Amino acid sequence: MQHIKRYHSHSFRAAPNQPEIVIEGPVSPESLQDLTMHVKLDAFRKPKEQLEALIEIARLPEGRIILARDGSTIVGYVTFHYPDEIERWSQGHMQDLIELGAIEVADDYRSVGLGKKMIRLAFEDEQLENVICFTTEYYWHWDLETSGLTVWEYRQMMEKLMKCVDMVWFATDDPEICSHPANCLMVRIGKKVPLSSVEQFDRIRFQQRFMY
């Protein structure tokens, strides 16, 4: 299956006297090597290690990195790739099932809508209309301490963010998602996805014979 990658770039200033922030992607691994990570991008691993992980994802045929940068400093990013082999979502090795794996914005840049701008750019020009895009939201990945939000307020914020590109809540019997009521599965089915892929994804979502 051909994965469409059309580079897009937008820039804006949060205020007249603020530096210009560039939103761009999918970016190449070569361009990422010339950038540095903001020191506060440490939700998943240390900034330097996270940059190495982004470069690895960018090298994947299906991988794509959307980023926000202030000059040569990455201040936010979104990753897209095939689901990890240890997760149920990789079952069937679907060529048109892509995971929005991570989204992170540095603390000092969280008030200007970078998350929404990055996700919207990823779906520009119908480049993800031939895939099912999903994301798994787990409360233990959320920055509740810095945000000051409750689990349910953060969940509402994440749902609102994903809905900006028409991702919606989907039910599943996945044990990890079902382990806490705030966890959720958000999905967007591209308009060019065949019914056979939708049905296969449904079989992956529900693997218990009975739901109680």
From TrEMBL:
<protein>
    <submittedName>
        <fullName>GNAT family N-acetyltransferase</fullName>
    </submittedName>
</protein>
<feature type="domain" description="N-acetyltransferase">
    <location>
        <begin position="25"/>
        <end position="172"/>
    </location>
</feature>
<dbReference type="GO" id="GO:0016747">
    <property type="term" value="F:acyltransferase activity, transferring groups other than amino-acyl groups"/>
</dbReference>
<dbReference type="GO" id="GO:0045150">
    <property type="term" value="P:acetoin catabolic process"/>
</dbReference>
<dbReference type="InterPro" id="IPR024699">
    <property type="entry name" value="AcuA"/>
</dbReference>
<dbReference type="InterPro" id="IPR000182">
    <property type="entry name" value="GNAT_dom"/>
</dbReference>
<dbReference type="Pfam" id="PF00583">
    <property type="entry name" value="Acetyltransf_1"/>
</dbReference>
<dbReference type="GO" id="GO:0019152">
    <property type="term" value="F:acetoin dehydrogenase (NAD+) activity"/>
</dbReference>
<dbReference type="InterPro" id="IPR016181">
    <property type="entry name" value="Acyl_CoA_acyltransferase"/>
</dbReference>
